[in-house]
Design a protein that fits this description.
- The chain has 183 residues and is mainly β.
- It has one domain: Fimbrial-type adhesion domain (Immunoglobulin-like, Sandwich), CATH 2.60.40.1090.
- The protein has 1 helix and 10 strands.
- A hairpin with a 4-residue loop joins β5 and β6.
- About 3% of the residues have low confidence.
């Protein structure tokens, strides 16, 4: 494509008039800007996780022993771990266990399928017996991150105690306790 000489001359004349007009008025052409804003929002739902490890005893229960068998004496106590988003009020409770029909008050029952062995759960920090359904702890979440290490993790240690002097048959006694977290 060839640009004609006449077109170039006309373009030069138009540009000259524009420059002359700008110079005569003292105004110059400037860049302009415009702005706007927009919102960014999100809803953060309250969220919590609860986890626990099993209670184990360091030795077998001896019906002839005069002292209680305590999971904290060489065994493993349960650690209940709760991780919640910040400022979330929560509470958790422990049920009576799968053998709850044979539990009374703060005493729960383990079973070998036909016989029962009484035991208690205690909050390790206070040695308070934890009755079925009673709130074990309530607190406020201090930040859920969901990825180990869990920086907002809050924990409670629960000991298992088998009272001495129970006359039971030999066997493998078990129970499963459910921890329910409300938030």
């Amino acid at each position: 494509m060839t640009v004609s000489k006449m077109f170039v001359k006309k373009l030069a004349v138009v540009a000259s008039f524009g420059l002359a007009a700008t110079m005569m008025t003292g105004e110059r052409a400037e860049a302009a800007t415009d702005t706007t804003t927009f919102a960014v929002d999100v809803v953060v739902n309250a969220y919590c996780d609860i986890a626990a490890n099993p209670i184990t005893f360091a030795s077998a229960y001896d019906p002839g022993a005069v002292a209680d068998l305590d999971s904290s004496a060489g065994g493993t106590s349960a650690t209940i771990s709760v991780d919640c988003t910040q400022n979330v009020n929560f509470a958790f409770a422990l049920n009576a266990g799968t053998n709850g029909a044979n539990a009374t008050g703060t005493v729960r029952a383990m079973s070998d399928g036909s016989a029962y062995l009484d035991y208690r759960l205690e909050l390790a920090a206070t040695n308070v017996d934890l009755g079925a359904g009673a709130t074990v702890a309530s607190a406020v979440g201090d930040g859920y991150d969901g990825v180990p290490p869990l920086t907002g993790l809050q924990t409670w240690v629960i000991d298992g105690v088998i009272p001495a002097g129970q006359s039971v048959a030999g066997g493998n006694y078990t129970d499963t306790v459910t921890a329910t977290l409300n938030y």
